[in-house]
């Protein structure tokens, strides 16, 4: 069998029509373990649709929705706990919603592709903040070139702060 080219993902804005699918993903055990309860999360995601500080996106593979990703600017939110990051930094959160796609390398590939797109747009640094016990996510983020730099506790709970900077050498996931 010939080598398969790395998957290419598409990122499109979340619409209200996506909310039932996202809510179902949030109820999946591999997601629910790390995200707040689906009702709370879906209410926040719905608010983010029209937000200027948070961009909620659907991750698609071969035209099918497979996960949720959001990027946010900590400098555009009052009292955000990550405002100590360099100006221009964006934070990201992501989850693969489809259980059968978890543990197959999609998380690190999605993150690497998305971060490269952000760097091309001039973003200097991207941060992500998994729970310190979420070893699967941490491994995926390391594979995508992220490096841990701090451990914090904020209103969102315990977080391992990880970053990838645009000015570091190109990284091949």
- Principal-axis shape equals globular
Major beta-sheet overview = 7 strands, mixed
Roughly what percent helix? 25-40%
Strand order of the largest sheet: 1-2-3-4-5-7-6
Our Rg estimate from Cα atoms comes to: 15 Å
Mean of residue pLDDT? 89
- What structural category arises from helix and sheet content? alpha+beta
**Fraction in beta strands:** 25-35%
Number of strands: 7
Please count the helical segments.
Answer: 5
Alpha carbon gap, first and last residue: 22 Å
Sketch the topology as an H/E string, one letter per element. EHHHEEEHEHEE
Low-confidence regions: 1-5
Structure description:
Strand 2 (54-61) and strand 3 form a beta hairpin. Helices cover 28% and strands 29% of the residues. The radius of gyration is 15 Å and the shape is globular. Mean pLDDT is 89; it is low at 1-5. The chain is an alpha+beta fold and 173 residues long. The protein has a seven-stranded mixed beta sheet with strand order 1-2-3-4-5-7-6, covered by helices on one side.
């Amino acid at each position: 069998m010939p080598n398969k080219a790395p998957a290419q993902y598409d990122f499109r804005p979340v619409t209200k029509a996506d909310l039932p699918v996202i809510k179902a993903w949030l109820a999946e055990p591999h997601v629910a373990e790390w995200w707040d309860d689906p009702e709370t999360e879906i209410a926040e995601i719905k608010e983010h649709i029209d937000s200027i500080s948070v961009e909620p996106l659907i991750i698609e593979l071969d035209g099918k929705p497979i996960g949720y990703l959001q990027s946010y600017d900590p400098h555009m939110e009052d009292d955000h706990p990550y405002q100590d990051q360099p100006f221009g930094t964006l934070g990201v959160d992501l989850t693969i919603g489809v259980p059968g796609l978890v543990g197959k390398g999609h998380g690190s590939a999605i993150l690497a592709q998305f971060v490269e797109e952000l760097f091309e747009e001039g973003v200097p640094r991207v941060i992500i903040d998994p729970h310190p016990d979420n070893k699967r996510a941490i491994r995926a983020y390391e594979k995508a070139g992220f490096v841990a730099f701090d451990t914090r506790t904020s209103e969102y709970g315990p977080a391992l702060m990880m970053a990838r900077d645009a000015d570091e050498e190109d990284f091949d996931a």
